[in-house]
Amino acid sequence: MRKTLIAGNWKMHGSLESVEALVNGIKSQLDDNWQSDVLVCPPYIYLDRTIQMAQGSKLAVGGQNLSEQEQGAFTGEVSGDMLSDLGATYVLVGHSERRSLYGESSQLVADKYAKALEKGLKPVLCVGETLEERENGSTMKVVKSQIDAVLDFYQDKEQGLEHLGQGVIAYEPVWAIGTGVTATPEQAQEVHAAIRDYLAEINQDVADKVQILYGGSMKSANAEQLLAQKDIDGGLIGGASLKADEFIAICKIAG
């Protein structure tokens, strides 16, 4: 049985005051009896404070990105060792905003995925198509190519899938991120099932265990229908994760 993961991506939002209020608001409503895991990914500059505040609770903390490099003259970058050193346990890789705004290729994302695993972090591999790609019927072609970059990094697809199974996949249709438009539960399930079927062609057991999150304007109003789908194992939440009550409402639905 796959565990559900509810992850909040705070993107470039917040101040020290608002982050502390948000973490306190989430912590005060967390229930240790929930079977689901709960994760937040604050901006780098607030990682240390968030991790300190999360201690003693079931709230996990992750980074929003990491460098594929070990260390060195890479101004502005943050390494996997630095994230681990602070106590982060997860890291997002290949978020659509990193791909579209900062030109990250699938190959670079695969390098980052591998570096995260190497450093003991659990990578959340973000995949998804643009509106144009969906309309021309190439959703799965795009998603498979993004997944293949990670599988091919390890040269052998069976070995690649073993590594992919150590992380999390987040399907985020780019056309539904920050737009208020959400894929219908049926649309989301169709892609999630297709991803799992694709992985099952390599190894059914690993495919059955991989967590696949939905990311694309999930909120408390639609979370129940989305999370009820067979192959949706949680959510990567954007705007709704910036409000403690709204984020917790999704967590309660996940249970």
From TrEMBL:
Catalytic activity: D-glyceraldehyde 3-phosphate = dihydroxyacetone phosphate
Pathway this chain belongs to: Carbohydrate metabolism; erythritol degradation; Carbohydrate biosynthesis; gluconeogenesis; Carbohydrate degradation; glycolysis; D-glyceraldehyde 3-phosphate from glycerone phosphate: step 1/1
Subunit structure as annotated in this protein's UniProt entry: Homodimer.
Sequence positions that bind substrate: N9, W10, K11, G178, S217, G238, G239
Keyword vocabulary terms for this entry: Cytoplasm, Gluconeogenesis, Glycolysis, Isomerase
Family, per entry: Belongs to the triosephosphate isomerase family.
GO MF, one annotated term: isomerase activity
Enzyme Commission designation: 5.3.1.1
Gene: tpiA
Active-site residues from the entry: H95, E172
Subcellular localization(s) per the UniProt record: Cytoplasm
The protein's name: Triosephosphate isomerase
Function description: Involved in the gluconeogenesis. Catalyzes stereospecifically the conversion of dihydroxyacetone phosphate (DHAP) to D-glyceraldehyde-3-phosphate (G3P).
Coiled coil: none
Species classification: Bacteria, Pseudomonadati, Pseudomonadota, Gammaproteobacteria, Kangiellales
InterPro entries, sorted: Aldolase_TIM, TIM_sf, TrioseP_Isoase_bac/euk, Triosephosphate_isomerase, Triosephosphate_isomerase_AS
Primary enzyme class: isomerase
